[in-house]
Amino acid sequence: MTQKAIYKILRAENQQNKTTIVTTSHYVKDMEQLADRLLILNQGALIFDDDCDQLVNNLVTRKLFDVEYLAKGQIVKVTWSAAELFSKVAELEPENILTIKQRGVSLEELISQLIEEAR
Asked: Which domain holds residue 91?
């Protein structure tokens, strides 16, 4: 049986019988396809309990910055959060900063950030 077929069966069961289905997964695709509500655990501690829309809202409000700069004659590529960007860029010589590009975070990155914040 394919993963799509399993998703279809689980969604049908949920919709037709109003059944709550509890599943665990390390795969973001599973969460996006199946879940109305997400519980994210880190080492047994609950770090997120809300609906998928709230997780998506978290995605929209968080930004990452891809930065390229010169250090000892080498191009260094890093990704920093907004909070990190301001403190770390202040440590660099302005002429060594090559590019700073803003982007949103992926669902995987958001979950990683939530885990880091919970530590």
From this structure: 63-118
In the predicted structure, residue 75 carries a pLDDT above the cut 80: yes
**Cα–Cα distance for residue pair 61/75, rounded to 1 Å:** 29
pTM (whole model) above 0.70: no
Residue 81 and residue 40 share a domain: no
For the CA atoms of 36, 45, 55, 37, the dihedral, rounded to the nearest 10 degrees, stands at 10
- The reported pLDDT for the residue numbered 77 is 97
Determine the distance from the C-alpha atom of residue 20 to the mean position of all C-alpha atoms in its chain, rounded to a whole number.
25
Count of domains observed in the chain: 2
Q: Domain boundary residue among 33, 59, 85?
A: 59
